[in-house]
Design a protein that fits this description.
With about 230 residues, this protein is of the alpha/beta class. The protein contains six helices and ten strands. Helix content is about 25%, strand content about 30%. The longest helix is centred in the C-terminal third of the chain and has 16 residues. The chain starts with a strand and ends in a 12-residue tail after the last strand. Bound molecules: adenosine-5'-triphosphate (ATP). This is ABC transporter ATP-binding protein. It comes from Lactobacillus mulieris.
């Protein structure tokens, strides 16, 4: 059984008389421990799909099954629990709380789940063991993104969802972030899903889901994902 199965999922947004079909009959599956890239141009429907996978939004029709559970049938409370326990989020602009230190930012997220990792352990895993008492403003963009990753992985989530995680970073720092995310999948067995419009990132994935106009244009499996040092953009 796949960890994630998306079956004929569609999402409509209605504003007044206009209906936008942001996701149109999307079907794919993701195995545990895979690194998956969802690739597409701006407006293709990637974030909508990621939000549905993360339980922040629901499909208008179709099913999403995670670990054998149909999350499309979940109540609000069940979805809250799912977001808390099963999913870690990494966003383009980090979303750290400015008046909390790196360690406190991670602790805050870890507090809402049982069996969370120690904040210091999560920060050490992303190479920030020495900086955990710094506030976000005292850290570079790449370091702040590493705090955001530590915050996400401290919950020991089954799925790590990353929306343009390198979008605000320079080339080398972006690569360092991708290296950490790839190692989460290859060394820790986490299932990592990265949304991006950057096609160069695709070769590091076990699977690439090409999204165009709300539809899956192509599903590409890759038995030999590239190492981060081999990719360029
Ligand atoms: N809450 C909403 N209400 C109405 N329309 C929406 C909403 N969210 C997204 N859309 C529309 O759905 C389509 C897909 O948007 P989505 O944000 O999923 O694309 P994307 O591929 O993530 O784009 P980007 O890379 O620019 O973030 C767009 O036409 C967008 O305007």
């Amino acid at each position: 059984m796949s960890l994630i199965e998306v079956k004929k999922c569609s999402k409509e947004y209605k504003t007044g008389k206009i209906t936008i079909l942001a996701n149109n009959n999307i079907t794919f599956s993701i195995e545990k421990g895979q690194l998956v890239v969802i690739l597409g141009a701006s407006g293709a429907g990637k974030s909508t799909l990621l939000n549905i996978l993360g339980g922040m939004d629901t499909c208008t029709s179709g099913d999403v099954i995670v670990n054998g559970n149909k999350i499309t049938n979940y109540s609000k409370n069940e979805l809250t629990n799912y977001r808390r326990k099963d999913v870690g989020f990494v966003f383009q602009f980090y979303n750290l709380i400015p008046n909390l230190t790196a360690k406190e930012n991670v602790e805050l997220a870890a507090e809402i789940v049982p069996n969370a990792m120690e904040a210091s352990e999560a920060l050490e895993a992303v190479g920030l063991g020495e900086r955990m008492n710094n506030f976000p403003a005292q850290l570079s963009g790449g370091e702040q993104q590493r705090v955001a990753i530590a915050r996400a992985i401290a919950k020991n989530p089954a799925i790590l969802l990353c929306d343009e995680p390198t979008g605000a970073l320079d080339y080398q720092t972006g690569k360092n972030i991708l290296r950490i995310l790839q190692e989460m999948s290859t060394k820790k067995g986490s299932t990592v899903i990265i949304v991006t419009h950057n096609a160069a990132i695709a070769s590091i994935a076990n699977q690439v889901i090409h999204i165009h106009d709300g539809q899956v244009k192509k599903l590409e499996k890759n038995d030999h994902p590239a190492n981060i040092s081999e990719i360029e953009w």
